[in-house]
Amino acid sequence: MRGMDGELEGVEAMVAGAKSKGGREICERTVELMYYLLGERHSLQDRDQHE
Known about the structure:
Blueprint: H1 2-21, H2 24-37, H3 44-50
């Protein structure tokens, strides 16, 4: 469980960093990480091509 706690803290740190900097790229990378963790590896490039 210690590893899981460490990963959660890492995600929380990324989200906090995205909020403090207001950086779009950071937010997109966080979303990409969430998809990856869910096992749905959608790249940002593929998503952008559909828009």
